[in-house]
TrEMBL record:
Protein name per Swiss-Prot or TrEMBL: CCAAT-binding factor domain-containing protein
One CC-aspect GO term: small-subunit processome
CCAAT-binding factor domain ranges (all copies): 290-438
UniProt family annotation: Belongs to the CBF/MAK21 family.
One Gene Ontology biological process: ribosome biogenesis
Family matches, as InterPro entries: CCAAT-binding_factor (IPR005612), Noc4 (IPR027193)
Pfam family, one: CBF
Length: 500
């Protein structure tokens, strides 16, 4: 074998050894040499490729297959003894050596370990070690389960490994049987954060339906009998969700869980009512978790016609000055616009939102102030009775404003008796775009709503660039327009400069 000081030659030597083993009809000494080199830890990737070459060829040539005839004992011939040894060595190398690489600290070794494990699994699916006649054995479930156990580690973050595994999920058989195996791997008690994140990352990659392009990784003679049963994958998803929803979550895992819920799970749940308490509890966590929970609640209200108590009070409480310095403010504006889109909401409730937004507009960055002005305009268009906030004749000012900003219940904030004096103030804003956005209160209201979604990604730089472009064509070189090439009368330049 190659020495550690010559790593460049190791790959070629191992490949030659693997070829020699196959041509020698399975010389145990050669395979033991390769395994011994594997244990040395020198060039593990080349060792994995050598083992893959050996075992896929052994499976393809049926050199480990022992035919079993009913009611007839298997003969203990030298050939069968050798096949048993090959099979035992194969199973041992797969479970201990190859799958062990999935726990290696080296990302390169881990990824190659997964690739080798899946390629061997696919080959065994096409050329089983025993005669198989049922669909259950179409994919070697024991090996697939062992791979998933390694990926769902509670000690290592396996995001890169799971991302690699998504390449195999493009095959319908691997996707389907991953769903079938996963419920048995779901921790029933409270796992640690590493396991939860690995589990949720994997769950996010799984789709309920078969792939658009039908492909089978373990395709063989039985491939025509394989059926992707969507009712089974949905049933597995519901079993899984019933467990993971009740795990003890950190803010990070709860955030990932809600993302998976919104993007993958919610539409397939058999009993969405069970989410009620979970979403309401998540709404109290704060930050991006609350926003994701809010989106889930909106879907439940819209799709399942559920009624959530105090949901508008919770939404109202989210509008604090700190919101403008977070990454999720755009989502809050978007969801709030959806929640307040109904024209059947009480006017004093909507007035509270309009007033709170107007007050926050005095503190908000320019890009957010423009969104708020348009948002308030939309609320007034939906509820014409709120025009009283624009034309309040009681002379409400900042010092006499009856609106109670500190009140947590929007219905008790007394906003309906106030006015939007904040928007009058914003008409004098230093940013022309902000001042123009606030002028809608003194102009006839449009017949259609403002499109807030087009403004959600705007930044202060975008606003500045637009203003610069407006004035870039009006560059003033002097305050008096010249009428000829001669200097104007009274020109002071000639007093200090002499022109030849």
């Amino acid at each position: 074998m190659a020495h550690p000081e010559k790593p460049v030659k190791i790959s070629k030597i191992l490949r030659a050894k693997a070829q020699e083993f196959l041509e020698s009809h399975g010389n145990p000494d050669i395979l033991n040499q390769i395994i011994k080199h594997f244990d040395s830890g020198v060039d593990t990737v080349s060792c994995l490729l050598a083992l893959e070459m050996i075992f896929t060829n052994l499976l393809r040539d049926r050199r480990m297959f022992i035919e079993i005839i009913p009611l007839k004992p298997v003969e203990n011939t030298p050939e069968n003894q050798h096949k048993r040894w090959l099979k035992e060595t194969y199973e041992g190398c797969y479970s201990m050596k190859i799958l062990g690489c999935l726990e290696n600290d080296s990302p390169r070794i881990k990824l190659q370990g997964l690739s080798t494990a899946m390629n061997i699994l696919a080959c065994e699916g096409r050329y089983p070690l025993e005669a198989k006649g049922t669909l259950e054995n179409y994919v070697p479930l024991g090996k697939l389960k062992a791979i998933l156990i390694k990926m769902l580690s509670n000690k290592q973050n396996n995001t890169n490994l799971i991302n690699k595994y998504t390449e195999y999920l493009l095959y319908d058989d691997i996707l389907f049987f991953t769903w079938k195996v996963l419920p048995s791997l779901t921790a029933k008690s409270n796992p640690n954060e590493i396991y939860i994140m690995n589990y949720l990352v994997l769950l996010e990659k799984l789709q309920i339906y078969p792939n658009t392009e039908t492909k089978y990784m373990c395709g063989g003679e039985n491939v025509s009998f394989f059926t992707f049963e969507e009712n089974i994958t949905k049933r597995c998803l519901n079993k899984i969700w019933h467990c993971i929803m009740y795990w003890i979550h950190t803010p990070e895992t709860l955030r990932q869980l809600l993302i998976v819920l919104l993007e993958k799970v919610l539409v397939h749940l058999e009993k969405p009512l069970l989410l009620t308490d979970f979403l309401m509890d998540s709404l109290d966590v704060g930050g991006p978790v609350s926003l994701l929970a809010l989106q889930g609640i909106f879907t439940m209200i819209q799709v399942h016609n559920l009624d959530y108590p105090n949901i508008f009070a919770k939404l109202y409480s989210m509008f604090e000055p700190e919101i403008f310095h977070t990454k999720y403010k755009a989502r809050l504006f978007y969801l709030s616009d959806l929640f307040l889109s109904s024209t059947h909401l009480p006017e004093n409730l909507v007035a509270a939102f309009a007033k709170r937004l107007a007050r926050l507009a005095l503190l908000a960055p320019s890009e957010d102030t423009i969104i708020i002005c348009n948002f308030i305009g939309n609320l007034i268009l939906r509820h014409p009775g709120l025009k009283c906030l624009l034309h309040n004749e009681s002379g409400v000012t900042a010092s006499t404003d009856p609106y109670i900003m500190e009140e947590r219940d929007p219905l008790k904030s007394n906003a309906i008796n106030s006015s939007l004096w904040e928007l009058h103030t914003l008409q004098n804003h230093v940013q022309p775009a902000v001042a123009n956005a606030a002028k809608f209160i003194t102009l006839p209201l449009p017949s259609v709503e403002w499109d807030i979604s087009s403004l959600l990604e705007n930044t202060g730089d975008d606003i500045f660039d637009k203003e610069v472009k407006k004035f870039s064509k009006l560059i003033v070189l002097q305050f008096e327009q010249p009428k000829g090439l001669s200097l104007n009368r009274g020109e002071k330049v000639s007093m200090y400069w002499e022109f030849d």
